[in-house]
């Protein structure tokens, strides 16, 4: 099941910095920057729980399902 994260959009829509996001959630800088910079980095359940608990949001606000053909198109374009 291909999914991508929407962390960048989530953070940007709230007008907070990655640093503030890190401080709010208690996630490591490595995790925060990886999630923010790479939409294909799927958050571990522990990270997902921390984000959802901190901001009182549903997981669907943080990740989205991607049709397999869109993933295939992305892979083809990087070759």
| Whole-angstrom Rg | 13 Å
Oligomeric state as shown: single chain
**Largest beta sheet: strand ordering:** 1-2
In terms of structural class, how would the helical and strand content be classed? mainly alpha
Task: Count up the helices.
Answer: 5
CATH superfamily: lambda repressor-like DNA-binding domains
Q: For the terminal residues, how far apart are their CA atoms?
A: 22 Å
β content, as a range? 5-15%
- Globally, the shape reads globular
Give the H and E element order.
EHHHHEH
Tell me what the structure shows.
- The protein is mainly α and 79 residues long.
- The protein has a single domain (3-78), classed as lambda repressor-like DNA-binding domains (434 Repressor (Amino-terminal Domain)), CATH 1.10.260.40.
- Helices cover 59% and strands 8% of the residues.
- It is built from 5 helices and 2 strands.
- Strands 1-2 form a two-stranded antiparallel ribbon.
- The chain is globular, with a radius of gyration of 13 Å.
- It starts with a strand and ends with a helix.
- The relative contact order is 0.21.
Please render the helix and strand layout as text:
Blueprint: E1 3-5, H1 7-14, H2 18-25, H3 29-37, H4 45-55, E2 63-65, H5 68-78
Antiparallel strand pairs: 1-2
Helix pairs in contact: 2-3
């Amino acid at each position: 099941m291909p999914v991508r994260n929407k962390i960048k959009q989530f953070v940007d829509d709230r007008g907070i910095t990655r640093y503030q996001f890190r401080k709010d959630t208690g996630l490591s800088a490595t995790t925060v920057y990886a999630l923010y910079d790479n939409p294909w980095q799927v958050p571990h359940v522990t990270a997902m729980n921390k984000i959802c608990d901190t901001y009182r949001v549903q997981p669907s606000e943080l990740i989205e399902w991607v049709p397999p053909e869109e993933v295939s198109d992305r892979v083809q374009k990087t070759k």
